[in-house]
Amino acid sequence: MKKIGFLSFGHWTPSPHSQTRSAADSLLQAIDLAVAAEELGADGAYFRVHHFARQHASPFPLLAAVGARTSRIEIGTGVIDMRYENPLYMAEDAGAADLISGGRLQLGISRGSPEQAIDGWRLFGYRPPEGGTDADMARAHTEVLLEVLKGEGIAQPHPRPMFANPPGLLRLEPHSEGLRDRIWWGSGSNATAVWAAGLGMNLQSSTLKDDESGEPLHVQQRKQIEAYREAWRAAGHAREPRVSVSRSIFALVDDRDRAYFGQERDSEDHVGYIDAETRSIFGRSYAAEPDVLVKQLAADEAVAAADTLLLTVPNQLGVDYNAHVVESILTHVAPELGWR
């Protein structure tokens, strides 16, 4: 069995060829797609976060709205760039969204990725520590977030408060019990996966990873997952961790699918540089008839190793078509692989 959800980047453009032409379209359609996915039996609705771009940005209003419109499906991010975040304010927002959803939030966070703006996090008021990097800053913000999500008191009560305080130090409110165990780290390397395991975070691995061995992406990801789980066991955490991988997968079951993806040429991994120093491997897309997809996905070692699969969806093709994309995988592919 495997949990299957969708991951939307929330792209929008005023182009007449797009069905998602404004930020309002992107947000409202995201809610509708989450509702449709829940009705189809999908397990998760996840959203990417990018700043200074025509995509989803601040995620918590969207997550809260999805939580209010659904009742079962997991609601998450993949990922929030922690270079931009005030961890205490984020903990309050996350606690509120989690309570609205009834404890269904699965919060994916990370250092982030190459972005639209140069050092955009500086405009949000953040600076790396002396002698440190923006990645160090992201990890420091993360450690603060994890600490305050425990729900312990951190603030001295005012001697003359507006309202009566409970005894002891004050914690951030609203606090949502259990959210600390539903934080995921989006890891692009083996080392950060091991670091995440030590802190008790679940693992998200996407279609982009540091090329650390020259092997195919799915093999490198499988080894990353194994290193993560070994580190988790060594840390002695009481619960079992969760691991997700994301993939672009399209079952060609009707003329629309064949028109959009029947000529898909991105059927191999690609290697490139996301910055001047980082050699990365970009994962292939899958687009084929269901019986072919079953064979291809059965050979994907990372998909096999993960408990959760996130389907990246082309959100600009509209809610109805993206619901069809999810339904096709749930109906024609997942049962044949034993995921349903």
Automatic annotation (TrEMBL):
Domain Luciferase-like spans what residues?
Answer: 9-258
Record has Oxidoreductase as a keyword: yes
Q: Does the keyword Oxidoreductase apply?
A: yes
**Superkingdom per UniProt:** Bacteria
Instruction: Please list the GO terms describing molecular function.
Output: monooxygenase activity; oxidoreductase activity, acting on paired donors, with incorporation or reduction of molecular oxygen
Name the GO cellular-component terms: cytosol
Keywords on this record? Monooxygenase, Oxidoreductase
Q: Supply the InterPro entries for this chain.
A: Bact_Lucif_Oxidored, Luciferase-like_dom, Luciferase-like_sf
A Pfam family this chain is assigned to:
Bac_luciferase
Q: Which SUPFAM superfamilies match?
A: Bacterial luciferase-like (SSF51679)
Entry-linked PANTHER family: BLL6902 PROTEIN (PTHR30137:SF15), LUCIFERASE-LIKE MONOOXYGENASE (PTHR30137)
Q: What is this protein called?
A: Monooxygenase
Look up and give the organism this protein is from. Answer: Streptomyces minutiscleroticus
Classification of source organism? Bacteria, Bacillati, Actinomycetota, Actinomycetes, Kitasatosporales
